[in-house]
Amino acid sequence: MHRVLKSISVIFHPLIMPVFGVIFYFLNAPRYVDTNIIWAKVISLSILTIILPLLLYLLLKITGKVNSIYLKSVNERVFPLILNALVIILTLRTVFRNHVYIELYYFFVGILVSTLACLILALFKFKASIHMIAICGVFMFFITLSIHFGININTTLALMAIAIGAVATSRLHLKAHTPQELIMGMVIGLFPQLVLVPYWL
User: How far is CA 66 from CA 60, 133, 139, in A?
Assistant: First the structure.
């Protein structure tokens, strides 16, 4: 069971969730998008939001700014969160800069707001769950997409709700967070996506 719960934290890692949200969007949006464009967006996004952060983590590891990829202490989170915010800004200015995919543009604006909120809490020595921020942000994005496009994704939403519970259970089992930190992560993930809905829905 320990291995299962640990694997859940890896499968639903915060670095993966934005790409998952974008792939889901392109698979379900009722509009034609050329396959080459989809591949270009997904590959460039993967480079910016997965590969680049991993390389930056290695740099922080070498310089002694972080001790492990799990960022167990609050102080370890500050530099990675700052760098991640810069990566999201870069994503907004390159991959989704022209508002052609306005839903994805505001999805990443919400991610940026959540990241900055998590950073502010870290500066005040509070360790909100980044795993919960990521998966709950994607969950709210899926809900708003279903309303926006009038599509039935109830099965996906049900599976996502189960996944949120599994991630929370995993983080508690691994003693990575307290219930309060998980709840705060959930709020930080859901709220920005919900607040930004009027700008594109």
Answer: 6, 21, 29
pLDDT digits (tens, 9 = 90+) for 103-155: 999 999 999 999 999 999 999 999 999 999 999 999 999 999 999 999 999 99
Residue 154 tokens, joined: 């109830």
How far is residue 5's CA from residue 174's CA, in Å, rounded to a whole number? 8
Contact 103, 145 (CB under 8 A): yes
Look at the pTM and tell me if it is higher than 0.85. Answer: yes
- Asked if 12 and 167 count as a contact pair (C-beta separation under 8 A), the reply is yes
Q: What angle do CA 32, 38, 43 make, to 5 degrees?
A: 175
Instruction: Identify residue 186 by its one-letter amino acid code.
Output: M
Please choose, from the candidates 194, 118, 135, 198, the residue with its C-alpha nearest in 3D space to the C-alpha of residue 169.
Answer: 135
Say if CB 143 and CB 130 are below 8 A apart: no
Chain length of the chain:
201
